[in-house]
Amino acid sequence: MKIILKQLYYICICFIVLSSCVPSESEQTKTMGQQEFTDLRLGMFIHFGLYALPAGVWNGDTLSSGTVAEHIMRLKSIPREEYHQLAKKFNPNNFDAHKIVRLAKQAGMKYIVFTAKHHDGFAMFDSDYDDYNIKDGTPYGKDILKELSEECKNQGIKLGLYYSHIRDWDEYHSVDMYGNNWDWDKDDPNRNAQVYIERKVKTQLKELLTNYGEIFCLWFDTPGDISKKQAKDIYDYVKRLQPDCLINTRIGAGLGDYGVMGDNQIPPGVLNGIWECPATMNHSWGFHCADSAWKSREDMLLQLIDLSSKNINYLLNIGPKADGSIPEESVDRLKEIGKWVTENGEAIYKNGPSPWFQEMDGIRVTTGKDALYVMLLNKNIDAIMLYGLKNKVIKVTDIHDEVSIPYEYREVKNLDLPELKIKVPGDWKEKIFPVFKVKIKGQPQVDDRPGQMSSGNIILQVGMAEVIGDNGNLQISGMDGVIDTNNWPYFATKNWNSTEDYLKWNFFVTEPGLFQVNVISVSTVRSYESYKREWESIYQNDKDFNKLFFTVDNQTVSGTIKGKERISHIRSAYRPEFINRFGKIRIEKPGNYTAVLKAGFINPTDTDGTVIYEVQLEKVQN
């Protein structure tokens, strides 16, 4: 029996005020570790723990397929001692660290992040803190993390560790909004988060950072109400043990070496700094027997391509079954991803984001040393139009530099705008996301104005707009590169509560015609059901809806933000978006134009204000 450290002492708590702090992503100069992190681009997340045993089912009651199974202890308010009984049955003899690391490499993944301790408090490693760990408390009786760390080293892949540093449902002193408030009174004044940090968190972090070799990154989560002092104390503690270990921003209080998006969250534009998006293959992170909503190979490849073009790493999750085996659905998809990455990895690894801020219809772009990589997403496009590239184009080929692709490069008359037109080979339409390599002279320099795309449509993303107003309330979230702790959608309007504030864009048109104006609004919560309940409580009658006016070339169309017609695409699966159809406008000739979006009425009872991502000008007629 190991010594149960938490019963030996009660640590007196003191704070040391530290004046230094970790800079935000926008202020960072990349260290070697941060640059390496960005270069890797694709990683494997592994959510594995006791929660794999119930697999989303407790006492015959199955969690809905859209629910995360690793939260079953909280969702079913399972008493601590009852949940402990799972450890006595946990025997993942089919966990094969060698095969898992090999699978990650086959998929093109360059690093692995493993759940050393999730919110249930169970340690998936050999810990001296107490016996509630996989080595001492289960029939398995081995240190699964030791096996994984040795395989990562042997096969040359980086290892990171997930550690829930604030939320722990097994600990009395873990105080959190979503903490264990069924075994203990959430208002108990004797519960003290700092006691938990000093006793358990630091003890186990020291074990993780001294017993398992080089740890590439520590993946903290759900910081809740952590104070700046507490977050800084943990940050410094990690750095003293392993100075080169990268720490994510979910440590809390705005600290961290790299930013983490919300779960499955994808922004509509390029982010500055060092970023990662954790993503699931279905809905749940831990194995859920009833979750069959598996994303397709194409969906996950599209996410990888899209995120890479926006300067964001893709951390794709697997949830092993209770016996340690990997679901076949995950294995099959990872192998398929690996086939594409093997063929096209040059466009993903060690590359920068697109030099254009916002998304382009039907394509995504990454930046190499002296080339642009243009990935074709829409098979119906006959030619790709890239506007604003100022560099000399040397040649356009396939990604392997073997097949020359016809292209035209010219200045658009009266617009002072370079145009690169690339013909899409007919047989490429049968390929999955084929890649053009555009060889250029020097680092890319672009005119980044919004304007017409290959489809003929125009997208005016709010991150490209000028914000005008006297009161200074209206903001565009994420433009400063700082983590939004409230999980607000990135590059969306924020605090648009006044009709005095408005947005203005300068954009270009190359092919005039008739355009349908659509305003895309976005939910500030991830759950569509939560959004719907909140929305319907505020907006009950037509007169309640926010009304906007869009003006371009002396034509004005108006509409209300009703948030009812949901749209489906890569961004909106976990952040509901809605199309709000206004009217049509006609633009008679090519040229530079100015557009304005103003509010005529904003419902004062909606504290979120008017939240939109973009205005779409959909070309419907020449």
Automatic annotation (TrEMBL):
The UniProt GO MF terms for this protein read: alpha-L-fucosidase activity
Which residue range or ranges hold the Glycoside hydrolase family 29 N-terminal domain?
A: 26-346
Source taxon at top rank: Bacteria
Q: What is its EC number?
A: 3.2.1.51
List the lineage, top down. Answer: Bacteria, Pseudomonadati, Bacteroidota, Bacteroidia, Marinilabiliales
Q: What class of enzyme is it?
A: hydrolase
Q: Among the entry's GO cellular component annotations, what is one?
A: lysosome
Q: Name one Pfam family in it.
A: Alpha_L_fucos
List the InterPro entries hit by this protein, alphabetically. Answer: FUC_metazoa-typ, GH, Glyco_hydro_29, Glyco_hydro_29_N
The organism encoding this protein is Maribellus comscasis
* Family annotation (Gene3D superfamilies): Glycosidases
What's this protein's family per the entry? Answer: Belongs to the glycosyl hydrolase 29 family.
A GO BP annotation: glycoside catabolic process
Q: What does this protein do?
A: Alpha-L-fucosidase is responsible for hydrolyzing the alpha-1,6-linked fucose joined to the reducing-end N-acetylglucosamine of the carbohydrate moieties of glycoproteins.
Name the record gives this protein: alpha-L-fucosidase
